[in-house]
Amino acid sequence: MARTFLPALILMAGLVSGYAHAAGTDPAWAQLNDEQRQVLSPLAGEWDTLRPWQREKMLDIARDYPKMNSEQQERVQKRLDDWSRRTPFERENARKRYQKFKTLPPEKKAELRKKWHEYQGLPETQRETLRQEQPELGGVDEIDN
Is residue 57 part of a domain? Predict the structure, then answer.
């Protein structure tokens, strides 16, 4: 079962999709307001090295953050923290898997989401075993639509 789904495909759906860079939206960390710095704090150490489109996407997240309910805010913080801990290699692999997922037909996406939810229902010990068997999945513990 675990070998047929790709649990890391959509991990960073909101974080890895590329956006066109709008002129003038490339602020340094020091130029962010307090609210933006608080939301994006897991990225503080690397903010000034992010690509413009990545910064733009993160600013979009910070802008929408106050409108989110507490569960959504918690998920954003978990994802940002997870992303900040990944190596550049792991991030690039996640981007590639996400791009591949985006090209799948809707029925295949639905099948993978179903399998992901089945995986989420497994006891943690079983999930850990599966992660060890498939290290290329990066130990991902959350996938969203």
Answer: yes
